[in-house]
Hints:
Blueprint: E1 4-14, H1 20-31, E2 34-39, E3 45-52, H2 53-63, E4 71-80, E5 89-92
Parallel strand pairs: 2-5
Antiparallel strand pairs: 1-3, 1-4, 2-3
Amino acid sequence: MINVKRTHVFVSGRVQGVMFRYFTKKKAHKLGLKGFVKNLDDGRVEIVVEGDKKYIRKFITWCKKGPIWSIVEHVNILAEQPKNEFDSFDVIR
């Protein structure tokens, strides 16, 4: 049985206007994760992700670096109970 986990992630730094959301979606799809990514008004990026625990760990490791154009300064990670509310991983605009 898959060990399903849900994680709420807030990424700060130079993470808007550098295709962070696009590459986040691409990475989530590659790892078979579901959820969403969106820009926040305060300059951070918010991510909610659900899926296999081992793939979420890989995803978070990627979030701490981001795409080449980004500068990740801080990643805040909050564990949550899975809700199984997502069918895919989407960019929210």
